[in-house]
Amino acid sequence: MSQTMQLTVPQSGSIEAYMQSAYSIPMLTAEREHELATRLYNENDLQAAQELIMSHLRFVIHVAKGYAGYGLPQADLVQEGNVGLMKAVKRFNPEVGVRLVSFAVHWIKAEIHEFVLKNWRIVKVATTKAQRKLFFNLRKNKKRLGWFSNEEVNTVAETLGVSTKDVMEMESRMSTHDQAFELSNDDDDNANASNFSPAQYLEDKQSDLAVEVENENWETHANNRLSTALVTLDDRSQDIIKTRWLDEDKSTLQELANKYQISAERVRQLEKNALSKLKHSMAV
């Protein structure tokens, strides 16, 4: 896989091809990552930055999958996460003593959060004609009112044909201000000791995203190799291995002995031989 893969995520069904390409890029060792980050930090080496970014695209995909429940295009979520990754790489200090992925995960999530919130609000705040009418009527009334009284809430709900809960929820949303998670656009290129965002100092001590993704990839790879190795066994041996090791409700040696009209000892021998063949096949 070439390290010149485009960061722009396809908007069509080729998102699957993009994901396959991203997962085909090898992960960096801690030593290589530190070397590249040092070159970028001290020398502004853009080739080092590109290699750091490309090798972490799989982490963006991993994080983006966690936001699938919002009904937004996966390609858009990944694209926003890539923006966060690039911001993280730009700010990463290799002397801090943490891996890039531990630092970048917060920037990736921040970009995806902002995208989800913007689009989720568009969808949820005014999905019906009544809600749109409620939204604009509340905006007009908010110029002269603070919080609505119970009587005003009931009047607005009755006039617009919505529930009082809808009125109170809309009023709450319109009165809420978001706390910035990262630097503003004006400060984006001028971060310094007196101008920082909370995201730069967050650390998730409960999980290691790099380890999680490595484990997920290893498990998928191991399952694929096991499936391939199983088909090399005869039907009876396959059944013994599956029912003894893979099924949720596992069979006993005696149950299999009764099934195949052989002794339990013979089942044990067949099981041992099958496991030996699987081990050999998966080691090749």
Automatic annotation (TrEMBL):
* Keywords noted in UniProt: Cytoplasm, DNA-binding, Sigma factor, Stress response, Transcription, Transcription regulation
Q: Which sequence positions fall in the DNA-binding region?
A: 253-272
One Pfam family of this chain:
Sigma70_r4
Q: Does the keyword Transcription apply?
A: yes
| Listed GO MF terms | DNA binding; sigma factor activity
Subcellular location, record wording? Cytoplasm
Q: Where is this motif: Interaction with polymerase core subunit RpoC?
A: 76-79
Q: Does the keyword Transcription regulation apply?
A: yes
Where does the RNA polymerase sigma-70 domain start and stop, copy by copy? Answer: 76-89, 252-278
Q: Name one GO cellular component term.
A: cytoplasm
State the residue spans of region: Sigma-70 factor domain-2: 52-121
A GO BP entry is:
DNA-templated transcription initiation
Q: Please give the chief subcellular localization of this protein.
A: cytoplasm
The protein's matches in InterPro entries, at most eight in alphabetical order, are given as:
RNA_pol_sigma-70_dom, RNA_pol_sigma70, RNA_pol_sigma70_r2, RNA_pol_sigma70_r4, RNA_pol_sigma_r2, RNA_pol_sigma_r3/r4-like, RNA_pol_sigma_RpoH_proteobac, Sigma-70_Factor
Q: Quote the SUPFAM superfamilies the UniProt record gives.
A: Sigma2 domain of RNA polymerase sigma factors (SSF88946), Sigma3 and sigma4 domains of RNA polymerase sigma factors (SSF88659)
Q: Which NCBIfam families match?
A: PRK06596.1 (NF005143), rpoH_proteo (TIGR02392), sigma70-ECF (TIGR02937)
The Swiss-Prot or TrEMBL record describes its family as follows: Belongs to the sigma-70 factor family. RpoH subfamily.
Q: How does it assemble?
A: Interacts with the RNA polymerase core enzyme.
Function according to Swiss-Prot or TrEMBL: Sigma factors are initiation factors that promote the attachment of RNA polymerase to specific initiation sites and are then released. This sigma factor is involved in regulation of expression of heat shock genes.
Q: What is this protein called?
A: RNA polymerase sigma factor RpoH
Q: Which organism is it from?
A: Litorilituus lipolyticus
